[in-house]
């Protein structure tokens, strides 16, 4: 992309970014003319953060604490935060992933009041034995729901094959047994370690200003300096070998599901460039504009949801291909043949340009939506980057970069395969419905 256009673009998407005396990173994208505002309060604390040293004391958490904590943050001595949001008219939610927890809301009115609910509930956690026991039952039901999801079981099965000890092997929500171990002390220690302002990002986009967001921060003491918590994440050594090369289970699915995973070298926390490059490589191999995808789809070998993704968190990077197929081994071999062909011949330059332009366009398109714009800012800020920097970085990626990356990724000696076969119950149910019809 020409340098003058790039400079103009960076000016256009420049986010207002401030680091407060408390350590909190604040990003605001005012969008004049929009009626709503989307706000995200995010912390770099996810399901993989289970072992750490806090001020010299070693802490070990059972699986599922970050997700459990997300649920409990909505309760305090004054009641339920969702009830408070209902009074302001805001639509609120939260989610936990492998490496972060995010609290969010969208509001068209009473923004200050909704900001007070958000900053208040995250800034003043409240846990008791009784409220924890109640939540253990609720989340236990959620865990069983995940166990019934073939898509989720496929991904977790691949992780169990690819990794020996990395906590990505464990479900984000944990297990019924692991969450039974959770105590108020564990939750308070997690808050002290990871809900410190210096580990968090507050991003807002839409009908607001930096002044309005900073005023809310001031009301909640975030403009005052805070003592830095000394937290060190502890990781077990993870070799580049596989825990298993293949795994199969049966579930009530109508069509076989399969996944092919490749274990890659972990990336530095701030290396978004390599992650984006890997993502572009996948688009060239199995994306909607790739020759392989068109063949697989035209011949009915996969469903439209077949595709690849890059998953990167601290200490872990892997590339996964998943989908449904009646002939999963045939699809897997065609995939391996295409990887070998592209590695030898280089990525198709036209396909690479189309895929790159598509991803570039998606970043720009997200700027026109308050939810996507705030999410994009928060995601990149957690890695210390702005949206403008990410757009500029993507613009600089070349097909030659993709060719070079392909020489050391997607190697078959670091490949595992996961199968989910029908157990017959789904097909029997479909046949019963047809007979009734």
From TrEMBL:
Coiled coil: none annotated. It holds the Pfam family Peptidase_M16. The lineage of its organism: Bacteria, Bacillati, Bacillota, Clostridia, Eubacteriales. SUPFAM superfamilies: LuxS/MPP-like metallohydrolase. Residues 182-357 form the Peptidase M16 C-terminal domain. InterPro entries: Metalloenz_LuxS/M16 (IPR011249), MPP/UQCRC_Complex (IPR050361), Pept_M16_N (IPR011765), Peptidase_M16_C (IPR007863). Signal peptide: none annotated. It comes from the Bacteria. Residues 63-175 form the Peptidase M16 N-terminal domain. This is Pitrilysin family protein.
């Amino acid at each position: 992309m020409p340098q003058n256009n790039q400079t103009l673009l960076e000016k256009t998407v420049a986010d207002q970014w401030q680091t407060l005396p408390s350590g909190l990173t604040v990003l605001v994208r005012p969008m004049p003319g929009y009626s709503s505002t989307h706000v995200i309060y995010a912390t770099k604390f996810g399901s993989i953060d289970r072992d750490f040293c806090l001020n010299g004391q070693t802490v070990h958490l059972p699986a599922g604490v970050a997700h459990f904590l997300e649920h409990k943050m909505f309760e305090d001595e004054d009641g339920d935060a969702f009830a408070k949001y209902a009074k302001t008219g805001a639509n609120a939610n939260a989610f936990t992933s492998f490496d972060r927890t995010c609290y969010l809301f969208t509001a068209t009115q009473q923004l200050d009041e909704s900001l007070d609910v958000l900053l208040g509930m995250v800034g003043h956690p409240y846990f008791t034995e009784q409220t924890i026991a109640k939540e253990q039952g609720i989340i236990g039901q959620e865990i069983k729901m995940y166990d019934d999801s073939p898509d989720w079981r496929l991904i977790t099965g691949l992780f169990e094959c690819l990794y020996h000890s990395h906590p990505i092997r464990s479900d984000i929500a944990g297990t019924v047994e692991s969450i039974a171990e959770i105590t108020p002390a564990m939750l308070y220690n997690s808050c002290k370690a990871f809900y410190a302002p210096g580990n968090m990002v507050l991003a807002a986009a839409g009908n607001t200003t930096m002044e309005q967001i900073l005023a809310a921060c001031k009301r909640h003491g975030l403009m005052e300096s805070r003592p830095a918590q000394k937290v060190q994440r502890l990781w077990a050594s993870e070799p580049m070998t596989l825990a298993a090369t293949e795994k199969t289970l049966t579930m009530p699915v109508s069509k076989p599901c399969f996944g092919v995973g490749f274990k890659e070298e972990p990336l530095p926390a701030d290396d978004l460039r390599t992650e984006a490059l890997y993502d572009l490589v996948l688009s060239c191999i199995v994306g909607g504009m790739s020759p392989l995808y068109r063949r697989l789809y035209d011949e009915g070998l996969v469903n439209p949801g077949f595709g690849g993704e890059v998953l990167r968190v601290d200490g872990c990077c892997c590339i996964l291909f998943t989908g449904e197929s009646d002939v999963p081994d045939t699809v897997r071999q065609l995939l391996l043949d295409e990887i070998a062909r592209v590695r030898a011949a280089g990525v198709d330059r036209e396909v690479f340009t189309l895929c790159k332009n598509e991803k570039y366009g998606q970043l720009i398109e997200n700027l026109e939506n308050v939810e996507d714009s705030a999410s994009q800012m928060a995601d990149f800020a957690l890695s210390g980057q702005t949206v403008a920097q990410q757009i500029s970085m993507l613009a600089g990626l070349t097909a030659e970069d993709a060719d070079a990356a392909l020489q050391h990724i997607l190697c078959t000696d670091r490949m595992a395969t996961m199968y989910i076969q029908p157990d017959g119950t789904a097909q029997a149910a479909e046949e019963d419905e047809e007979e009734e019809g």
